[in-house]
Amino acid sequence: MAIQKICCLGAGYVGGPTCSVIALKCPEIRVTVVDMSKERIAQWNSDKLPIYEPGLDDVVKACRGKNLFFSTDYTTAILEADLIFISVNTPTKTFGNGKGRAADLKYVEGAARMIAEISKSNKIVVEKSTVPVRAAESILNILSANNKPGVSYQILSNPEFLAEGTAIQDLLHPDRVLIGGEESAEGHAAIEALCSIYEHWIPRKNILTTNTWSSELSKLAANAMLAQRISSINSLSAVCESTGADVSEVARAIGLDSRIGSNCFQKDILNLVYICECLNLPEVAAYWQQVIDMNEYQKTRFTAKVIQALFNTVSGKQIALLGFAFKKNTGDTRESPAIHVAKTLLDEGATLHIYDPKVEESQIFEDLTHPSICESPEYVNKSVKIYHDAYAATAGTHAIVLCTEWDEFVTLDYNKIYSGMMKPAYIFDGRKILNHTSLLEIGFHVQTIGKRLNRPIANRCWSSNVKLV
Ligand code: NAI
User: Fold this and answer.
1) 466 found inside a domain
2) Does 400 share its domain with 354?
3) Which among 257, 234, 255, 256 has a CA at the least distance from the CA of 450?
4) ipTM score above 0.90
């Protein structure tokens, strides 16, 4: 069956870029991306897209209004589509059973109910959201319980492996595309139909087909293994700081990736831990829980280091936070370490000057006034100021805490920044991207992750009761 019309439910970081690339590569297919949020759809139809991704603007401009449409009219889009992607959000549950760990599938369920209610013809429904194993079964249950005569469904699992910040490149040149489906003639036909879309630009050998459950589990497993590698290197970074080894060198020597922030959402490993517990596999759950704990330890260790270096008190101090996104080249702040750093510093009484090239001011306030972060929004309003460039953000501050590895932070004029700061001036490089030697030469006190830095002897103006590591 050749797919002529695609509908995508969810115009977020996954749905928007994925469908834009499909529209670009499949000019004969009409792709409609729908969302419940009118505001988000209006942004997709404007000059300022709701998400920042390098290369995305060009792809959208090339297809929008031709074979790519953003709409809130989900009824028409579902009715007309041969194939429907479910790309809705699957956050961690914030209440009830599995609170703080299990994936909240209410949006996936909502999407399935919409499809069941509206459809009048056969549909291939593709689960693109990251979901627990056997979620496809729940979707099928909803669809078949509301079945109408002459309408049949095939559910496929097609997890997304793109990383924010490089989404367009990842979508254009994926290492692999994974498609899981039912092991039946109809299942295979549906898999083939989805394969034929990707085959417009991806070699067949890079398209892996499996059964549904293997595909669902592979996404969680891939995230968990990536997180495990990051946690391993994070654990070694603590050893490096105590011994004089350099974590970047160790990582290179053992062929590991030293990224501290990555595209691996903690929510997906939490979900894996929860699934293992539900399956009565406590040892497996404990194994993956330790990966999460190590990630938390790394964040706590970093903020503890900042406070300790600033004479164990940041109360009343001005601290510049450079970067708020969870990684460079995105405006997404979900699970960003900057939120944890900001919370701790605010709890300790600091005043924060925040600058991020792509995160909107309203988003920063939304994140910091979330009930889990700060009980008093007034306190955040009073203690946080947002700036539109790094020089203004750092002027008059006691310390800089670098939270996101934006390229522009590497090439700032640190002599100029140093001269505008309170002395002694501190820099905490949470992403290990700056030239520490030259910062030390300028006169900064510098600390980073996974490496002990010694100030040049001549510059040590602080007496022995202050420990400079
Ligand atoms: P997002 O939050 O950016 O977008 C989801 C969108 O779905 C929202 O705009 C929401 O309004 C919309 N929505 C919810 N219910 C709807 C419905 N019934 N009909 C239409 N729209 C609806 O989320 P994002 O980041 O795009 O993630 C989507 C899924 O993809 C999640 O399961 C996530 O875990 C997964 N994923 C995300 C990656 C990422 O880097 N962001 C990478 C790989 C997978």
Assistant:
1) no
2) yes
3) 234
4) yes
